[in-house]
Amino acid sequence: MSSERHDQNFDAIANKFEQNIYGTSKGRLRHELLQYYLVKNINLNSLDTALDAGGGTGEMSKVLLDAGVNVTLSDISNETLNIAQQKCANSPALSCIHSDILSLPSVEYNLVVCHAVLEWLRDPFANIEKLIEMTKVGGYLSLSFFNKDAQLMGNLLYGNFDYVKQGMQVKNRVRLSPNNPLRPKEVIDFLHQQKVTITSMAGIRCFHDYLKDTAMQQSHYVQLKDAELTYGDKEPFMWLGKYFHIIMRRDA
């Protein structure tokens, strides 16, 4: 079996992906927190155009469309794009492109969103460079990605000691388990070499995944979300989030 990484395509399991991500408290919370930080840091109503890169089933595209933004949604899965068009009621302000990020036309947008995508890609840093290039000067890029440090800590807390010793690699991959998580500080160091200014950083799901009583993820969702909003962008909690979120402004 080849060890070469490939960008993940969810064509065969698009409906399962939709149900497993957005039909659960973890998917709902991730989406609501990302939406909160976007609205908190960017005046969405002032934007003309946005790219939802690797936007899958269009959950964030719908938020942007509702704010009056013209949205281009790209994904390598035709099936997820079909779901997105239905979810967005075939809005005339939505354009869909069946493409990987590196192959997208070099068009610039006021806002570029790339959430929970980098961890599925063969070369995430090349994709970040492309996304910066597609952000207008003065515009914003919003990145979120699976946090490798939090993945390690979670597995140790769950007692998966052998899995951690193996470098958190398994022979038979679970298709909905990210195959290329990133360390936040490595991404931040990379961004410091680019022509961008980081304007916001936050951990996404700093507490949800670590609850001893998992039933509280549903029964105490309101209190849990309040804790996430209170502490998610503060030290040291933001580094514990299962996902890490960065908003940056392109300077030149």
UniProtKB/TrEMBL annotation:
EC number(s) recorded for this UniProt protein: 2.1.1.-
Binding site for S-adenosyl-L-methionine: 30, 54-55, 75, 115
Keyword Methyltransferase: yes
Keywords assigned by UniProt, alphabetized: Methyltransferase, S-adenosyl-L-methionine, Transferase, tRNA processing
InterPro entries reported in the protein's UniProt record: Cmo5U_methylTrfase, Methyltransf_11, SAM-dependent_MTases_sf
Any GO MF annotation of the entry: tRNA (5-carboxymethoxyuridine(34)-5-O)-methyltransferase activity
Domain Methyltransferase type: 51-142
BP-aspect Gene Ontology terms: methylation; tRNA modification
One Pfam assignment: Methyltransf_11
Catalytic activity: 5-carboxymethoxyuridine(34) in tRNA + S-adenosyl-L-methionine = 5-methoxycarbonylmethoxyuridine(34) in tRNA + S-adenosyl-L-homocysteine
Superkingdom in the source lineage: Bacteria
Family, as annotated: Belongs to the class I-like SAM-binding methyltransferase superfamily. CmoM family.
Role summary: Catalyzes the methylation of 5-carboxymethoxyuridine (cmo5U) to form 5-methoxycarbonylmethoxyuridine (mcmo5U) at position 34 in tRNAs.
Protein name: tRNA 5-carboxymethoxyuridine methyltransferase
Protein's organism: Paraglaciecola mesophila
Lineage: Bacteria, Pseudomonadati, Pseudomonadota, Gammaproteobacteria, Alteromonadales
Gene encoding the protein: cmoM
